[in-house]
Write a structure and sequence with these properties.
Layout lengths: L1 E5 L2 E4 L3 E6 H4 L3 H12 L3 E3 L7 E6 L5 E6 L3 H10 L5
Parallel strand pairs: 4-6
Antiparallel strand pairs: 1-2, 3-5, 5-6
């Protein structure tokens, strides 16, 4: 399965750890610190040309984490994962 995050960015489903709503999760200090640390390491990819609404945490085979910030809502991204026939 592949998930389209916007702006011609697609990730593999088996690398996805979680989809998070940006507005609700950044209320937590721990989440803000996590995102700031990933940003400092250069592990954040902004695929949003508009106001970001969600972020997706991924991990590749080398266990390298990457965070994708997307303009698509977390609810829509979750629906896209469930709509994929490969998940049935």
């Amino acid at each position: 399965m592949y998930l389209h995050l916007g702006q011609n960015t697609v990730i593999r489903g088996d690398q996805m750890i979680g989809i998070f709503d940006l507005e609700n999760t950044t209320v937590s200090k721990i989440t803000r610190e996590y995102l700031a640390a990933r940003q400092k390491r250069g592990e954040v990819v902004n695929v949003s040309m508009e106001i970001p609404k969600s972020f997706v945490v991924c991990c590749d085979r080398r266990k390298a984490a990457k965070v994708y910030v997307s303009q698509i809502s977390a609810a829509t991204l979750v629906k896209r994962t469930k709509a994929d026939p490969a998940n049935l």
